[in-house]
Amino acid sequence: MQRVVVIISMLCWCLLAMNAPVFAEEEQAAIKDTPQDDVIQQIISHSATLSDAKQRLSYLKTQALVAQSLPLLKQAQWLHLLAIEQEALGKLDGAAASYTQAIHMLEPLPLSALLVNSYLERSYIVYLNSNDASLYCQDRNIALTHARKLNDPELLVKALSLNAFCFNNAQNFNVGLMLLDEALDIARANQLSNNRQAMIYNASATLYRDNGLHRRALTFYKQAFELWQQVDDTQDMFNMLHNLIGESVNLSLWQEADGYLAQMKTLVVEKSNLKDFKFKDFEFFYQYNLGQRWLFSYDFIEAIVHLKQAIALENSTSEAYFVHTSYAFLAIAYLQLGDKKQAIHWAKRFNDVSQGAHSKKDLQMAIEAIGLLGEGKTIDAVNLLLKTINDERTKFADFINNGIIYSALEHNSKVAEHQNRLLENQLEIKRLALNAQHDEQQITRLTLWLTLLLVLVLLSLMAFLYQSRRHFKHRSQTDYLTGIASRSYTMEEGETLHSHSRKQGQTLAVIMFDIDNFKRINDSHGHDIGDMAIRAVAQRAKHFLKQQDILGRVGGEEFLLILPNSQKQDAILIAERLRASIDDKIFNFKGIELRFSISVGVALSHPEQSFNNQVKSADLALYQAKNAGRNCVSFC
Fold it and tell me: Can you name the residues that pair with 553 across neighbouring β-strands?
């Protein structure tokens, strides 16, 4: 077996050497004269002097032939260095191959820390590529078995912490906690670094998060962030901020979420000019978290803006899971806004690329429901969403039912610790065992009540979803500042009225108007006064509406008035009255007296003209009014 490994490694060295740049002759000579035990250290030292990952990887490749002549352990060290730089540059397949080759070399040799680290690092690559615990946990189990045989507390804590991530559901949650308790005991007994203790808190938080205990998860993530902040570990601080934002969103703690987003933005700005590849995806995750924050606080327009910005940066990150989740979040946001076409488009993008991403089941089912909606299967879509709610209820019930086991295991761990120290606690242990039996009976009764409560919650949730749909439909049709129609709703209704007018042989008039010199108002008095001016114009324009007319805000200070069954003279008369009502008024905003005017453009429909072209004609008339000196009405 070892001979096969050597032959394979020699072939790999040759391939690397063929593609590597020529190394300087004097440096080659220096390496040749260096004792074998010092060669790797010299390579490490020289690599550390290079400024970025690309240079370090290029340099390491030049050492392929040199490393080939070294013993297998030294060759594996070189491969480990190579894999680190490949991973830093996003070459995940290459990094996985390098770690695999190092593992093959090290397995026949005496057990070493390098072998354990190779398994752990390869598991992280598999996690990035698949997010599938059944795949990356294979390496972590092997690593932990090996680590227990070595006298290396720091390495054992690392293996225990990473292995705990593999036990994140109600059935094996207790195993993960036991591993973390063991890791924490070792870390404290050996006074290990903040970094190792932070890893334990991070893993603990993830277990609690995955089982719905978000407040405990938030507490542990805060502890991990504080420890990494003390050692100024930027990458892990950023990762913890990502987790803290997610948990704050889960708990609807919007003020806390905004605070963590502000800290994340600071890190993005600080690292944006650095060439180091490891900070390349900071902007992606910042936009992703902004999108997540606004999506779950029901501001779908803002969510779409940031999620699209995140997707535009998807090539900057190797974490495919979050890219795919962005597609799903976009689909849900568009559906909430009533844009079924865009919702189906992003749901298809999600399904096309997420086959290997192992997204959360509830998210997959929501996207499947959107797909069914696109196929016209409304009832099937609703049933699938109800099934999603039922699955979440079952998952929660499973966690509650298994809670007794977790509590007992945690308690028994504490009892065993006291028993080793003080034998006289045996009586107390027996009393606690009896209490545990009593607690089990109490929790059984509590579970029955919780089941009833869950049924009531589900009924309330269904009622809430119905009301929410009505609310968000109205919200998407209304301009948030003025309370009149939004741009999208105005254009949709205008198209409908235009089509109806054409069928009835009637004339449709549109009036476009905006505030003259609006920028001067903002610059002189501030944007809050500008907003008040916009609202005031909208309110005065509403006085000129008939029941079937539509008034909408289509730009910053620009409005569109749609008048069905109106002739030219009627439309011009209304436009002139509207202009005069603004010009004659002295407005008072927060004690500031302000006079301003509007310019107005009017256009009538023609049999062969589309509504969009009619709006363009009104816009052209508005432009003519501006050129005529403003504060006037122009007809086109």
Answer: 559
H or E stretch at 585: none
What percent of the chain has pLDDT above 90? 42
3-class SS letters over 417-473:
HHHHHCHHHHHHHHHHHHHHHHHHHHHHHHHHHHHHHHHHHHHHHHHHHHHHHHHHH
Sequence letter at residue 13: W
Give the mean model confidence (pLDDT) for residues 3-23. 38
The DSSP H or E segment spanning 550 is: strand 550-553
The two three-digit tokens of residue 265, written as one number: 């933005």
Q: Give the pLDDT confidence of 453-473 residue by residue, as tens digits.
A: 777 777 767 766 667 666 666
- b vs e for 55-74, b when ≥16 Cβ sit within 10 Å of the residue's Cβ? ebbebbbbbbebbbebebbb
Which tokens in the block code for residue 487?
Answer: 């741009």
Of 289, 269, 290, 271, the residue nearest 279 (C-alpha) = 271
The rounded radius of gyration (Å) of the Cα atoms in the chain is: 33
Q: How many CA atoms lie within 13 A of 494 on its CB side?
A: 28
Distances (CA, A) of 293 to 208, 311, 338, 362: 21, 16, 20, 18
Pick the closest to residue 32 from 70, 83, 71 (CA basis): 70
**Could you give the CA distance from residue 209 to residue 197 in angstroms, rounded to a whole number?**
18
Query: Please, which residues have CB within 8 angstroms of residue 508's CB and are 6 or more apart in sequence?
Result: 497, 498, 501, 562, 563, 564, 565, 566, 604, 605, 614
Q: What is the pTM of this model?
A: 0.54
Considering 9-13, 48-52, 110-114, the range whose residues carry the highest mean pLDDT is 110-114
In Å, what is the CA distance from 393 to each residue of 390, 436, 453, 460?
A: 5, 26, 11, 14
Does residue 514 sit in helix, strand or coil?
Answer: strand
d(CA 579, CA 559): 13
